[in-house]
Amino acid sequence: MAILSEIQYKCPCCGGEIEFDSATQNMKCPYCDSEFEVESLASYDEVLKEEQSDNMNWETNAGSEWAEGETAGMRVYSCKSCGGEIVADESTAATACPFCDNPIVMMGQFSGALKPDYVIPFKLDKEAAKKALRKHYEGKRLLPKVFKDENHIDEIKGVYVPFWLFDADADAKVRYKATRVRTWSNSNYNYTETSFYSVLRAGNVGFERVPVDGSTKMADDLMESIEPFDFKDAVDFQTAYLSGYLADKYDVDSAQSIDRANERIKRSTEDAFASTVNGYATVVPEHTSVQLQNGKAKYALYPVWLLNTTWQGKKYTFAMNGQTGKLVGDLPLDKAAYKKWLFGLTGVLGAAALGISYLLWLL
Fold this sequence. Notes:
Helix content: 10-25%
Number of domains: 2
């Protein structure tokens, strides 16, 4: 006698095993009392069987080999403090590291790295960076008043930061668990009905030049904060663009940057799809599948102004997009002003709570 294997269905709401209920002719969960039509549950099961894990592979032939003699006028400078390696033309004197502000020394002829495919030349000069920093101070109520006067700029360096640019077409499917809630009442009871839905979204999203910086000295969140760079100003790389500026020598190659690119692409895809799921009380993503096609990477240098300042013995670093002028950086906090602000906020909230309590007492 043949023995049929037992088929088990999981409740989409709580994950418990559900069974067929003969009284309602539906599938019912004994744990949360949710009911499902047999046809709907079968369709849901088919969707689960078809779901795939992510497939995010890349062709990472970014950059190219330098031609013979092309790097003859380029030198490498090394920071003994943070380990940063800076590329510049041979006329650049050894000065200070743009990352940690410590002295850097010339190591010799540049070699051992790929040639960039593109470069976005600097559009804004050093004076624009100073002006942007002063504007950055404006409107900061919790910034110490003496900071503007006593905070001295120690060094301003124009640095070309290495970026890997990722292109891909993403075929994606996202499944959400969503709910709608209906409430009503009669003279005896208040009722709440929660309906659960499995919402599917599928489509194709094209990505062009998703940037990932190739330097461990430049924090990813800092570089993302001064984005975007406008690629319309990009040109084929030539060493002439390095004249008068520094270039950070990448220490994270394109293959090592793939995880970061995948993270950005997956997050952007999920955000785009989630924006189309409307009309529900709650929406929770349950499964995402991203299949990449035509994935490839290129290598570019993007312009960044780094400003190192010192105040009360502490260093502050600011970064400005050398193309658009967007500037970011941490500022000190005036603790006395913060306490006053917090006390005032607490007082306002306390007064509001007292007013509400008084109104309730009157009622």
